[in-house]
Design brief:
Elements: H1 2-19, H2 26-51, H3 55-58, H4 65-93, H5 100-105, H6 112-146
Helix pairs in contact: 1-2, 2-6
């Protein structure tokens, strides 16, 4: 709950501070989009380090080539579903449809290093933070409280 509150408050703080300003730079937008997730995920790791059994146990952060292979398999497999679905959506919705990222970064002119940084933020940092917070912390808490049997019901 504390991690979710930190994520919410950090997001709200960026919205309040940056909301009244005119066009923002790509760096400032990247900071506003990425910082709440990084803060919340960092807090989750810190809490499990100080009060729990550590991130390896509590968040189930284990490295294995099998896990990497499964992640790549499901990641690229998901693209085979997502790309045709997004093409279909674009045809149905028309040229005015925008993604969440496009609505935030629409109209921002940035150099290629900032474009690469935003890409890395959206593709790697965001999902990693979500994995730590939701799969690691939240699902781990549900699993411990309700037992392993709840997982398949």
């Amino acid at each position: 709950m504390l991690v979710g509150l930190v994520h919410f408050l950090a997001s709200a703080a960026f919205a309040v501070v940056l909301g009244g300003r005119g066009p923002l730079s790509a760096g400032m937008l990247a900071l506003a989009v990425g910082a709440p997730t990084v803060l919340a995920a960092g807090l989750a790791v810190l809490i499990t380090t100080l009060r729990g059994n550590g991130p390896r146990t509590d968040l189930k952060l284990h490295w294995s080539w099998h896990g990497v292979g499964l992640g790549l398999l499901f990641g690229f497999g998901g693209l085979f579903v997502t790309v045709p679905a997004s093409v279909l959506y674009a045809k149905v919705a028309g040229p005015g449809a925008k993604s969440a990222v496009a609505s935030v970064f629409g109209g921002v002119q940035a150099s290629w290093p900032w474009a690469v940084a935003v890409f890395a933020l959206v593709v790697f940092v965001g999902p990693l933070g979500e994995e730590i917070i939701f799969r690691g912390l939240l699902w781990g808490a549900v699993d411990r409280r309700r037992g392993r049997g709840l997982r398949w019901r």
